[in-house]
Amino acid sequence: MVRFLFGFVAAVVIVLLTMLCCVRFGFVDPRADAEVGVFESKIAMPALDAAVERRAPNVANPIQPTDENLMTGMRTYQNICAGCHGDILHLHAAFGDAFHPRAPQFAEDAPDMPENQNFYIIQHGVRLSGMPAWKQALTDLQTWQLVTFLSDMDKLPPQVSAAWKAAASDGFGSAGANPSSDTTKTKMKEEKNMEMSAH
Ligand code: HEC
Prior knowledge:
The protein is mainly alpha-helical. It has helices at 2-24, 38-55, 67-80, 82-85, 115-124, 140-152, 158-169, 179-198.
């Protein structure tokens, strides 16, 4: 019995060491554009879902899906999320495929996770993926407006859909009404001008 146990533990240690060596000595493909394999889809993704379910505080969405909240959520989404997650005119954002794991395309497949989990993911991002943590950039209210917009994305009131189409036709990051992004854009323009005059 003792010999069997010893053999079992030794086998487990050897397997773990072999796996560690494979990772450490470069046998893992580092490319973001490599095909998403079985490990990601069968193990990492369910693991992420389970971790978020376990950690996201069980809070209810404190705001209502009024036109005003949906409209503000839409603008924020169009400004900073659509480039990776798609929008009403660009159902599939090609840039979303530049990540490993790929960015889910919400206009193709509306997000169906509970709202407290979406709130948690938006605030904290997803480690080792392209999904940033937005807690520093967005207030709680802005984040709930985004969550509400995501929940209602496939059943938006006509006036919000119309405004979204108009914003999306101007391209990503151009929905306006977000002073911080306007400043960013002016700043980027200034930097571009500086760069050009330096040449
Ligand atoms: C730079 C690209 C990028 C941007 C910008 C971005 N995301 Fe993501 N997002 C990702 C990627 C990649 C994933 C997939 C992460 C994973 O599966 O591990 C993701 C995952 C998510 C998820 C989890 C979806 C699920 O079904 O598991 C939510 C919700 C989300 N993003 C919302 C947002 C919102 C809202 C914004 C804007 C505030 C945003 N994202 C901005 C790349 C991005």
